[in-house]
Design a protein that fits this description.
The complex is a heterodimer of chains A (170) and B (418). Chain A has 170 residues and is an alpha+beta fold. Chain A contains seven helices and four strands, in the order ααβββαααααβ. Chain A has helices spanning 3-14, 17-24, 72-85, 90-105, 110-117, 122-128, 141-155, and strands spanning 37-42, 49-57, 60-69, 159-162. In chain A, strands 3-2-1-4 form a four-stranded mixed sheet. The termini of chain A are far apart. Chain B has helices spanning 3-9, 17-22, 49-61, 72-92, 106-121, 140-149, 166-170, 195-204, 216-219, 224-227, 252-257, 292-306, 310-327, 356-365, 378-384, 400-417; strands spanning 30-31, 34-35, 37-38, 100-103, 127-131, 152-156, 177-183, 208-212, 231-235, 246-250, 268-270, 277-278, 334-337, 346-351, 368-369, 371-373, 389-393. In chain B, 41% of the residues lie in helices and 16% in strands. In chain B, helix 8 (195-204) links the parallel strand 7 and strand 8. Chain B is globular. Chain B is of the alpha/beta class and 418 residues long. The chains are: A alpha+beta (170), B alpha/beta (418). The interface between A and B is medium-sized, with 26 and 19 residues.
Chain lengths: 170, 418
């Protein structure tokens, strides 16, 4: 494959149909009613922002919404995240967060990510694999993981999440 | 003098952009298999061979610490460092080389004034006037100074076309104004501010003026006497010079009255635990071993720039800007951000339905480098009602072909993203 085709392939993989679709028409882009937790995520380097709200009931994510403002990658990631998490346990969310990080950084391939996440999450990992194109674009990894950082912060009791090291009190 | 040497030293009155590109080694490389089209000089400029050679020569032949050694190499390094200071003095038409303080960059230069000058004169209720379009480096130091002294910030709004109306600034300048700190040229919008008039208004009430000259030093002829400012700050790396070197020009009388910024070696006269005394400026503000070779590199960059006919370069940049402002909007959905009457060759833009970050990623794959984000100007982004913009900036080595490459890449981005 020559350089030009490889580059075209990379871009088409990053901005594949599902990413563009979710980027333009994000699912669950709302504030959840009767939310039990909420967290804001911010990438100060590029301005991506997301607010995640969730209603957790007996360890299950009964409802989750993500209001994301930013690049197509961050908005799509937030949308896909809400789709795969609804009805899942908070423990599953942690396993899916790891899968997303590994796929986005190119640490593991799809099969390894599915195996690590567990058989019960195989379908969700496949859905999230749409984000794995970002592994060829290191600068954009944080765009993909931002909503997940916000989610984990939300599940841990809310607050703010940032893709950068937490700031010292001003 | 040989023909080759006379060619090198003759001023280039006819501007040959293709020849200029050859002066910059990095511009010959490819990125992702495509020719490099570098349109981010406003973030940092590429370096000509002359600058690289000057720095290598200094390290290979004439390097030692300055101001301290009693041997030839140290004397030579000192002479070169001070000669660099004189080169800067002449470039900005300062009265005295003692008014040129070398810092590690413009940000440090502004912090120096905010710490050393502002904190020693500001009283509670005193006012510092800024504009909405300032870079964070010309906002945060003043916020810190205000917090420490009880002074307050007043901010002049930016107009829809990206200009700053002199009336908007005049409204904010009054008897309590002590400092007016504004950009000479906006790094996001390219707007050239009415700094001469601003200086007059400020001086009429006894306030001092600091200009953030990071873009101004590149695109405008800077004569600090004509501008009328009291402080002028810029970085070397945007002026085709190396990293780690910047300049603060300050009026001699002001510098002489200012307390130190950083303490350490070289900025002192005598040191004892009973008390220390300070050196005169500029040494007073140059604590520690200075950026010796970067200063030499900056002087080489200034010499390189001065080798061109000023008017020819200005016309070249004006032509590129005008060309870009005509061609960019032909891409469906592209909207220019920053269309002031008086502006330099820095052009922000947005595309409907595509985030600047995604644009920049696609453009990168075509070898085109633009910046996407808030450009260290979050208040400006908010004032403009955008989260971020993409920005293309045109320097001495850019050509109309670069603009065409940008336009072609934007069309491709539309295909992929929309």
């Amino acid at each position: 494959m020559n350089a030009a085709t490889a580059e075209a392939g990379d871009l088409l993989s990053l901005y594949q149909e599902i990413i563009l679709e979710h980027g333009k028409r994000p699912r669950n882009a709302r504030a959840v009613e009767h939310a039990t937790c909420s967290a804001a995520g911010n990438n100060p380097l590029c301005g991506d922002r997301v607010t995640v709200t969730a209603r957790v009931d007996g360890g299950v994510i009964a409802d989750v919404g993500a209001l994301a403002k930013g690049c197509a990658i961050s908005v799509a990631s937030a949308s896909l995240m809400t789709e795969v998490l609804k009805g899942r346990s908070t423990e599953s969310a942690a396993r899916l967060f790891k899968a997303v990080k590994d796929l986005c950084t190119g640490t593991t391939g799809l099969e390894a990510a599915k195996a690590a996440a567990g058989a019960d999450l195989g379908d969700s990992v496949e859905r999230l694999a749409a984000l794995s194109g970002v592994s060829q674009f290191p600068v954009r990894v944080k765009c993909a993981t931002l909503p997940w950082h916000a989610l984990m912060s939300c599940l841990a009791g809310g607050g703010a999440a940032t893709t950068e090291t937490p700031a010292a009190p001003g | 003098m040989t023909a080759a040497a006379s060619l090198k030293s003759a001023p280039r009155s006819a501007f040959d952009a293709v020849a200029v590109k050859r002066d910059f080694p990095i511009l010959a490389r490819t990125v992702h298999g495509k020719p490099l089209v570098y349109l981010d000089s406003a973030a940092s400029a590429q370096k000509p061979r002359a600058v690289l050679d000057a720095m290598t020569f200094a390290f290979e032949n004439e390097y030692a610490n300055v101001h301290r050694g009693a041997y030839y190499l140290s004397e030579k390094a000192t002479a070169n460092y001070e000669a660099a200071r004189e080169t800067v003095r002449a470039f900005v038409n300062a009265r005295d080389a003692g008014e040129i303080v070398f810092t590690k960059g413009a940000t440090e230069a502004i912090n120096l004034v905010a710490f050393s000058y502002a904190r020693s004169v500001l009283k509670p209720g005193d006012e510092i006037v800024l504009t909405e379009l300032e870079h964070h480096s010309n906002i945060v130091p003043w916020q810190l100074a205000a917090a420490a002294t009880g002074a307050v910030l007043k901010v002049a709004p930016v107009s829809a076309d990206g200009s700053v109306a002199i009336d908007a600034v005049a409204k904010l300048i009054g008897p309590r104004t002590r400092i007016v700190a504004v950009a000479h040229v906006s790094n996001v919008l390219g707007t050239i501010l009415p700094v001469e008039q601003i200086a007059e208004l400020a001086h009429a009430v006894g306030a001092k003026v600091l200009l953030d000259g990071c873009q101004g030093i590149v695109h405008e002829a800077v004569d600090v006497q004509a501008l009328g400012c009291d402080f002028y700050a810029f970085s070397g790396h945007k002026l085709y010079g190396p990293n780690g070197i910047g300049v603060l020009w300050g009026r001699g009388a002001l510098l002489a009255a200012m307390p130190p910024y950083q303490g350490g070696g070289d900025m002192i006269d005598t040191v004892s635990f009973a008390g220390s005394t300070w050196a005169a400026p500029p040494a007073r503000f140059e604590a520690g071993t200075p950026p010796i070779v970067p200063a030499i590199g900056l002087a080489a960059a200034i010499d390189y720039v001065r080798g061109f006919d000023r008017a020819a370069v200005a016309e070249h940049e004006r032509d590129l800007l005008a060309y870009a402002m005509t061609r960019l909007p032909t891409v469906p959905g592209v909207r220019l951000v920053g269309t002031a009457q008086r502006k330099a060759s820095v052009q922000s833009f947005v595309m409907d339905g595509a985030h600047p970050h995604d644009l920049a990623t696609v453009l990168d794959r075509s070898g085109v480098c633009v910046r996407a984000g808030h450009h260290c100007a979050q208040p400006l982004m908010e004032a403009l009602g955008v989260q971020s913009t993409a920005r293309a900036s045109f320097a001495i080595y850019n050509t109309r072909a670069d603009v065409e490459a940008l336009v072609a890449a934007l069309h491709k981005a539309r295909e992929i993203l929309l």
